[in-house]
Design goal:
The longest helix is centred in the C-terminal third of the chain and has 24 residues, at 262-285. Strand 5, helix 7 (163-175) and strand 6 form a beta-alpha-beta unit. This protein has helices at 7-10, 13-16, 56-63, 79-91, 107-115, 134-138, 163-175, 212-215, 230-244, 249-260, 262-285, 311-321, 348-365; strands spanning 23-24, 74-77, 97-102, 118-123, 145-151, 179-183, 205-210, 223-226, 290-291, 300-301, 304-305, 324-325, 327-328, 339-342. By secondary structure, the protein is of the alpha/beta class. Helix 4 (79-91) crosses helix 9, helix 11 packs parallel to helix 13 (348-365) and helix 12 packs across helix 13 (348-365). It folds into two domains: 7-32 and 263-365, Aspartate Aminotransferase, domain 1; 47-262, 3-Layer(aba) Sandwich (Aspartate Aminotransferase, domain 2), CATH 3.40.640. The strands form four sheets. Strands 2-8-7-6-5-3-4 form a seven-stranded mixed sheet, sandwiched between helices. The structure holds pyridoxal-5'-phosphate (PLP). Pyridoxal-5'-phosphate binds at residues 28, 79-81, 105, 151, 155, 183, 185, 210, 212, 218, 223.
Length: 370
C-alpha cells in the first residue's frame, strides 16, 4: 500500500484547529450533536469485546429498513471510512480494474490508488448536472473489472442519481460479474423520497453508510457496510477482525440508543437544514458571479465561480481577511473555481455571514470589463 495524506484531511478544520475558523462552511455533516442532548443510559454497559460483526440489536435495526435484508447482512465498522477501506482492500489487487465517479469523497479514490489497481474515472461535468448514464459505466467494463464505485447522494455535489439508474447499475454488476459499491452515507439526507437501500437489490451490491452525516455523530465513529453475499461478508469480517477486532461498545451503544429515536431527533435537524438551504438558495440566486447545480440531498453543494478571477487571491482573502472556509476544488481533484459549501453544519447566522463573505471576497478580486 502506498499511503498518501489527502488534502481534504490535511486541510480539514479539525486538523487546522476549529478555533482558527470563524465561518466554517467546510463540513459535510449536520451540526455536531452534544452528548448531554441525547437521551442515554449507559450505566449497565459492560466494557467487553463486543460481537465482531457489531451489536446484534444495532445490526437488526439497520437491516429492518428493507424487507430483503437480515441483521447478518450488516457489518458495523468504524465510520463509513473504514467500511470503504475494508471493501477496497478486500476486493482490489494491482491486477484488478475499478470504475469510479469523480469528483468523489477522496477515500473512494485514494485507497484504490494506494493499492495500485487500474482505475477508470467517470468524470462528472457541471454542464450535464453532475449526472452520468448507464452507458458511461457499461462502456468502461473490462474482463478484470472487479468494482464499480458510486456515491449517492453524491459528495461534493449533493446530486442524486435516478432510482431507475440505480436498479440498472445493480443489474449490470450482476450480469457482468463484478460488484457495485454504493456509498450511501448521505441517503438519510435525501430531500424527497430516500433511494432504495442499494444492497437490498441483489448480492453484487454493497452499501456503505454511517451515523456521521445525517445525525451529526461523526465523533462516534460508527458506520456499516451491507451485503447479501455471505462469502463476501466473511472476507469483510476477516478484514475487520484484523484491523480492529470489534467496535467500541460505548460507540455502538450510543449509536443504537440514538437510532431507536432517530425520527424524533431528525425532525429538529431537518428544520435546520431547510432553513439553511433557503438561505443558500437566496444567496446563489443573487450572486451573478457564481452558478450551482441544485442538489437532491445531503448538506453540501458544489457551485463554481463563473467569472475570471485570481483564485489564489480569492481564497487568501476569504480565509485570512474574512476567516471563512469552504472546501476548495482541489480537495476533490477539481479546479479551484469549484468550491464545496457545507450548509447544514453552521448556525443560520454563521452561514449567512459566511456566504456574504464569499461575495465580499469576490468583490475584491473581480474587476468586470467596461
Ligand atoms: C461520501 C462519504 N463517504 C464516507 C465518508 C466517511 O464518513 P464517516 O467515516 O464519518 O462515516 C464521508 C465523509 O465525508 C463521505 O462524504
Amino acid at each position: 500500500m502506498d499511503y498518501k495524506r489527502m488534502p481534504i484531511e490535511v486541510e480539514s478544520p479539525e486538523e487546522m484547529g476549529y478555533d482558527t475558523i470563524k465561518y466554517n462552511l467546510t463540513e459535510s455533516s449536520v451540526t455536531d450533536a452534544v452528548l448531554t442532548n441525547i437521551d442515554l443510559n449507559l450505566n449497565q454497559l459492560v466494557l467487553c469485546y463486543s460481537h465482531h460483526k457489531g451489536k446484534p440489536e444495532l445490526r437488526e435495526l439497520i437491516a429492518n429498513e428493507s424487507a430483503e435484508l437480515l441483521a447478518e447482512n450488516v457489518l458495523i465498522t468504524a465510520g463509513a471510512a473504514s467500511a470503504l477501506f475494508i471493501i477496497s482492500t478486500s476486493l482490489l489487487c494491482k491486477d484488478d480494474h475499478l470504475i469510479v465517479v469523480r469528483p468523489n469523497y477522496a477515500t473512494n479514490i485514494e485507497t484504490p490508488r494506494a493499492i495500485g489497481c487500474e482505475i477508470d474515472f467517470v468524470e462528472l461535468q457541471f454542464e450535464t448536472g453532475f449526472t452520468f448514464t448507464l452507458e458511461d459505466i457499461a462502456s468502461k467494463i473490462k474482463p478484470n473489472t472487479k468494482l464499480i464505485s458510486i456515491t449517492n447522494p453524491h459528495n461534493p455535489t449533493g446530486v442524486l442519481i435516478p432510482e431507475e439508474l440505480l436498479f440498472q447499475l445493480a443489474a449490470l454488476a450482476k450480469e457482468r460479474n463484478c460488484f457495485l459499491l454504493v456509498d450511501e452515507t448521505y441517503r438519510d439526507l435525501s430531500f424527497n423520497n430516500k433511494p432504495a437501500l442499494a444492497a437490498s437489490l441483489n448480492d453484487c451490491v454493497i452499501s456503505v453508510a454511517s451515523v456521521s452525516k445525517a445525525y451529526g455523530l461523526p465523533g462516534l465513529r460508527i458506520g456499516w457496510l451491507i451485503t447479501r453475499n455471505q462469502s463476501l461478508m466473511n472476507t469483510f469480517l476477516a478484514a475487520k477482525e484484523q484491523i480492529f477486532i470489534c467496535n467500541s461498545v460505548i460507540d455502538e451503544e450510543i449509536a443504537f440508543q440514538y437510532l431507536l429515536q432517530k425520527d424524533a431527533y431528525f425532525s429538529v435537524i431537518k428544520k435546520h437544514i431547510q432553513t439553511n438551504y433557503a438561505i443558500l438558495s437566496r444567496w446563489i440566486q443573487n450572486e451573478p458571479r457564481m452558478e450551482m447545480v441544485e442538489p437532491g440531498g445531503g448538506v453540501v453543494c458544489f457551485p463554481r465561480i463563473k467569472v475570471d478571477v485570481d483564485l489564489v487571491k480569492f481564497y487568501e482573502i476569504l480565509n485570512t481577511k474574512y476567516k471563512t472556509f469552504v472546501g476548495p476544488g482541489h480537495w476533490f481533484e477539481m479546479p479551484k473555481n469549484y468550491l464545496r459549501i457545507g450548509y447544514g453544519w453552521p448556525k443560520s447566522e454563521e452561514l449567512s455571514e459566511g456566504l456574504s463573505n464569499i461575495s465580499k471576497s469576490l468583490d475584491e478580486v473581480y474587476k468586470p470589463h467596461d
